[in-house]
Amino acid sequence: MTLPFAVDSSACLEPTLGPDGLPRAAFEEDLAALAATSGRLAKARADGSLPILQLPDRRDDLEAARDLVASLSENCSEIVILGTGGSSLGGQTINALADQGFGPPKGRPKLHFFDNVDPHTFDIFLERTDRSRLGVVAISKSGTTAETLCQTAILLDALRETVDEARLAGHVAVITEPKASPLKALAERFRLPCLDHDPKVGGRFSALSVVGAVPALMAGLDVAALREGAGAVLDAALAAGQPDPEGPAGGAAIAVGLSRLRGVSQSVIMPYVDRLAFFGLWYRQLWAESLGKQGRGTTPIRAMGTVDQHSQVQLYLGGPKDKHYTLLRLATAGTGGRVEPELADDPSLDYLAGRTMGDLLEAEARATGEALIRNGRPTRWFLLDRLDEAVLGGLMMHFELETIYAADLFGVDPFDQPAVEEGKVLTREYLRAGPA
Amino acid sequence: MTLPFAVDSSACLEPTLGPDGLPRAAFEEDLAALAATSGRLAKARADGSLPILQLPDRRDDLEAARDLVASLSENCSEIVILGTGGSSLGGQTINALADQGFGPPKGRPKLHFFDNVDPHTFDIFLERTDRSRLGVVAISKSGTTAETLCQTAILLDALRETVDEARLAGHVAVITEPKASPLKALAERFRLPCLDHDPKVGGRFSALSVVGAVPALMAGLDVAALREGAGAVLDAALAAGQPDPEGPAGGAAIAVGLSRLRGVSQSVIMPYVDRLAFFGLWYRQLWAESLGKQGRGTTPIRAMGTVDQHSQVQLYLGGPKDKHYTLLRLATAGTGGRVEPELADDPSLDYLAGRTMGDLLEAEARATGEALIRNGRPTRWFLLDRLDEAVLGGLMMHFELETIYAADLFGVDPFDQPAVEEGKVLTREYLRAGPA
After folding, report:
1. Does residue B112 carry a catalytic annotation?
2. Could you report the predicted ipTM of this complex, rounded to two decimals?
3. Interior angle at CA A90, CA A362 and CA A107, nearest 5
């Protein structure tokens, strides 16, 4: 499989961007250093010590996932995916290929991703929903996430009012590690179907596992194609020799180099594709939680084109030079509705008359990228010929690897999240003590 | 009317936060300087030279808005609000009080805010929608916004296939400045109802005008209460004497002071309220576009609690000390579904058994705030007893004023956006030249 997209980072480097760019020598030095990381990752892929690198090649986990999805989809017309952070964002990202907010593909259940514990939202949802056709998939790697347990207990209780307890297994399923946990205990008590979350696949790296596959299958998407796209990017990235400057290692070298040498503290990802809105949020967790430690890391920012041209681009062009930009552009020229010339019968609208919405979207993306570059803002392009499961899988693998490479350059462990424990301990203390 | 919320900024200042906080002397000096700004704003409110300050007191514009809403709501069961940036975010923010994504209040039309020009999204929407019951409100202050004109032309054309041209006025309306423009010309050609956008009210400051009132009325919300809440905050902010340290001037002095003296380049707003998700995006435009110029300004970031505890809080606690935090907490203790003790029958879940979802949400917010403060991160609280139109209006006015005060301290004009013109010119060039 050829790589499912093209990357152009030239306008992040000094020769093209000018003095705000990263010096080429610094870039090449970091890129050369990352050959060692590629070697380590290739070894880990071969010996199985880093299971996220096996995910693209796995198919053995899909039969159980398909059975579970078939059973829930038969009994339920609306399915709530419970879970937060990495247990939700991957699924939301993939599901967005099939559902743009106007309902699911025909014959598929409507998916709701509840990743928060706002009682108002839950109350309204339950008021409006036919519980006899309601499904739930509770996802928590550890099986101890407070929000997910609270959501699950409340929905189980609500379902019991309508669905016979013996039939709950047709409505509720769980994805969690095999070890004993409160969520696992609930699954056992109600004999709920349960898929294993690999203990060695962290939540924010789990999109290509069953965690993303279950929502994907519910939406009728092709999980094998998703993984094939990821595999193509992985193969290319781990090929022997100096890493590709336009591959994940190159992206890491640019982000970390700009942070060290040019004071770039923020990394903006800006898809000009509605279906990639959640992809930006998925990346935001991946980058922040993997790198933000020991006082290091940079802030990932999800922007959307063209929307944020009317919100953030004034700051991006006119504010401090503390950001670099990754713009994702899909080939849309000639697609979509056309502006009838007689409806744009105004000399000032000559540029729009006869053009399609896809023409406008592409022109806006190109113009914003060009304006950023002219104003000395490091800008990288991802150019997509199409958007499907393989392209999305490839993008996900690209950014997972870019994050792992960047962790090596920052000198941090991309797989832990030590700082969040303090808040969890305090939450339990406050709840035990009762309302303030 | 008393102020509809309480603010606590103590943990942004040195005495409480420690050495990462803003020195009290610097804070008080900036606050004192802002008394002059308050005086200038009070004068502008009195003499009408800054119409955004009159909006809280206006009611004369609502009758025409109500008539337009009544007519569209009678003919249409789905209404698309076209517009981008400030023409959309205010409406989305207000509408979120009534619609959490599970459909509109009973008997009201379903609103769709289309602020992008992705042809895929438009095509799917049109495929799935009954055009005979479709409504459109096109909002563009200047009447020249390329995206809005493109959207409007395509939807007008689609509607003409189903709705008799003489009846289009019952389906499509326009909000734009009174002067001649391509959008105004379309309105005149099809005799569409048209509300005036005040030429002196910039898009990002227009939420309290008809731009926000039309969607609010469609959703059945109380626009007078929204404006009353805004008025209460405005009255308090412009009262004579040194500005309130917990009012908008105090917030501006903290944000700008931390940026100057403590290297804080990013301002995170984090509501623990689903209904304020769009409020965070509205604020993000307001702050970025008003202040990001001449190399100045800071980056506004919308986070959501508790969701982003599982995505961004590792970075917030463990990453660089380059952010300050505004957490919005609603009194939710005791509300929502309860975790039945028999479903949390596990020693490790003692903290959850018998608690409500609202208990958990409040405890998580308090815990995250406390963890930020313990880790030397400047953190401000907004405490809301309830969330309704008055509270939302008050919050909007607070942040509009905070932005205007901050502009004075940064030395920039909050009402212009000079940098975005370059991209607009390039877009037109590219479209005239045809696909790349």
Report:
1. no
2. 0.98
3. 85
